[in-house]
Amino acid sequence: MDYHTNIKIVFSIFGSDFNPIDFTESINISPTKFWVEGELIPNNKKNKKREESCWEYSIQSETIYFEEVSEIFYNIFNNKIENINNYLTEVKNVTVKFDIVLELAEEQGVSLFFNRNFLSMVSKLDSEIDVDTYILKD
After folding, report:
1. Do 37 and 53 form a contact (C-beta atoms < 8 A)?
2. What is the DSSP letter of 60?
3. What are the distances in angstroms from CA 30 to CA 3, 49, 83?
4. For residues 75 and 89, is the Cβ–Cβ distance under 8 A?
5. Which of 63, 94, 137, 138 could form a disulfide with 15 if both were Cys (CB 3.0 to 4.6 A apart)?
6. Is 88:13 a contact under the CB 8 Å cutoff?
7. C-alpha–C-alpha distance, residues 59 and 123, integer Å
8. 51-81 pLDDT, tens per residue?
9. Largest CA distance in the chain
């Protein structure tokens, strides 16, 4: 199997007092995934329910340059930061997070450069960054 390096950004907002449907209407961007506290978790044999609500937006690209993916994200969300922050000031106990997923083809590197645009956005949203790396082997 021939693997290629992929970089994915998952922007998520989650919390128990958070309403992802209202949030979608507030910023006028549809999530790639969302769920509401109390919903059954799919494919769970123990019928566990979600403990908090979540809104996610993800972007993925076949590249070795994080900056390419972060600029796409920045161009979508930059003019929404004020709306996002206004909405979140009314909600308590929420977490804002960027998950960066690096799927590296064996023996291929990646450039993980955080430019000022991305870092400024992370800061303005008072968010966290989590980086996960996976090596894809034949």
Report:
1. yes
2. E
3. 30, 23, 14
4. no
5. 94
6. yes
7. 20
8. 999 999 999 999 999 999 999 999 999 999 9
9. 49
The two three-digit tokens of residue 64, written as one number: 């070795």
How far apart CA 135 and CA 35 sit, in angstroms, is 29
Phi-psi region of 101 (alpha: psi -120 to 50; beta: other; left: phi over 0): beta
- Single out the residue of 31, 30, 25, 51 nearest to residue 39, CA to CA: 51
Give the pair of three-digit tokens for residue 20. 């992802």
Which H helix or E strand runs over 23? helix 20-27
Q: What's the predicted TM-score (pTM) here?
A: 0.91
Collapse the DSSP code of 7 into the 3-class scheme (helix H, G, I; strand E, B; otherwise coil) and give the result: strand
Determine the Cα–Cα distance for residues 52 and 19; give it in Å rounded to an integer. 10
Tokens encoding 39: 């919903």
